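Notes from hallway chat w/ T.B., transcribed later so I don't forget. T.B. wanted the structure written out for a chain they're using in a teaching module, and asked if we could keep both sequence and structure tokens in one place. Agreed to drop them here.
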Amino acid sequence: MAISFNFILGLLAIAYGLYSYYQRKTAPEKIEKLQTMIERNGEKMAHKIHLFGYTIMPIVAGLLLLYAHFRG
């Protein structure tokens, strides 16, 4: 089976989601978008939004792309 665009994009999306999670845990003060969200929405809500949008969504999208690749 040849490597498709879905496979490559899926791996990249998963890697981005994991990297974003790592950044949030090690140095959240360096993430400008997170700091802006904290100013606008409060700390608790900003962390939830950032976790969902920059960690969970890319990982789920990557898994769906990998599924599409292996399904055929």
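Follow-up for T.B.: Helices lie at 5-26, 32-41, 43-71. Might be a good example for the class.
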